[in-house]
Amino acid sequence: MAVKTYIAAITEALDLALEKDKDALIFGEDVGQNGGVFRATDGLQAKYGEDRVFNTPLAESGIGGMAIGLATQGFHPIMEIQFGTFIFEVFDSIAGQMSRTRYRFNNTRSNNIVVRTPYGIGTKTPEMHADSIEGLFSQIPGIRVVMPSNPADAKGLLLASIENNDPVIFLENLHLYRSLKGEVPEGYYTTPLDTASVAKEGSDVSIIAYGGTVPLALKAAEQLEKDGIKAEVLDLRTVAPLDIASIGKTVEKTGRVVVVQEAQRTAGIAANVMAEISERFVLNLKAPIGRVSGPDSIFPFAQAENDWAVKAEDIVNKVKEVVDYD
């Protein structure tokens, strides 16, 4: 084990993937000599050459189209979209092409493409740089949406995504890049996709979170424990498809649930989780399901970011409301 930052774990995963898989290619805006705007690919072009790690024009739609073409020729593209909301420019390639390849070709071909992009609040980015976009992609059949919450999972889930034969949207939390450190196993390993993880055991209430909200949920759980409330924190890790079995297990265990997301309230992952619980596990519930989310408004300019953001205190208050329900 070694202590690494979230972004260092991602860089290490990319390095190991290029070393193991000679057909793996990394490309995107400024990912070459500069190592990307956040230095996630720092040093990789120097190590593997310009044929395997290279810059593209500032044209996200072109990046997506090239990834599709390369995948049809046996390459394993790892494409970077510099900021999450820039992915709108390549939406057609993802939703209209990558996601449908296996179905369209009767399971004879697939697009094993990883689309890496950062998202999330906490770094005072300009407009259209930090939106949470996972809800948009979770509704597209044929696409996995993976959102690690810690360095060990960032490495293992990224390597698993690269090995996977279907397209994966791999969302990396901006705030966690350098603010979060953790123990990361050495060498090459994968963390299973489509599988949630219990980040903290508890018995009184389940906090279901993912990505950047997991550290907030863990902080809230620590505060709640001082008040005698033992909260279990379930980290979804993959938000599409959901790990229904793990969700059911924690609901059956505690009977009380709070779902947390950074994204706006309407039509998000939290709503999907709540619906699945209501349909499948409603008889295990002792109280209505609580939800903590961003407001239904445009992601704000930097001056208002702190007011807009989900906080650990919000989770604590919602948990107490659910626990106190008669």
Structure description:
There is one protein chain. The mean pLDDT is 96. The protein is globular. The longest helix is centred in the N-terminal third of the chain and has 15 residues, at 6-20. 37% of the residues lie in helices and 20% in strands. With 326 residues, the protein is an alpha/beta fold. Helix 3 runs parallel beside helix 4 (91-97) and helix 10 (244-254) packs across helix 11 (269-280). The chain has 13 helices and 14 strands. It has a 7-stranded mixed beta sheet with strand order 3-2-4-5-7-6-12, with helices on both faces. Strands 9-11-10-13-14 form a 5-stranded mixed beta sheet, sandwiched between helices. It has helices at residues 6-20, 44-48, 60-72, 91-97, 101-104, 134-138, 151-163, 176-179, 213-226, 244-254, 269-280, 305-308, 312-323, and strands at 2-5, 24-28, 53-55, 76-80, 114-119, 144-146, 168-173, 181-184, 197-200, 205-209, 231-235, 238-240, 257-264, 290-294. It starts with a strand and ends with a helix.
Keyphrases for this structure?
single chain; 326 residues; alpha/beta; seven-stranded mixed β-sheet; five-stranded mixed β-sheet; 13 helices; 14 strands
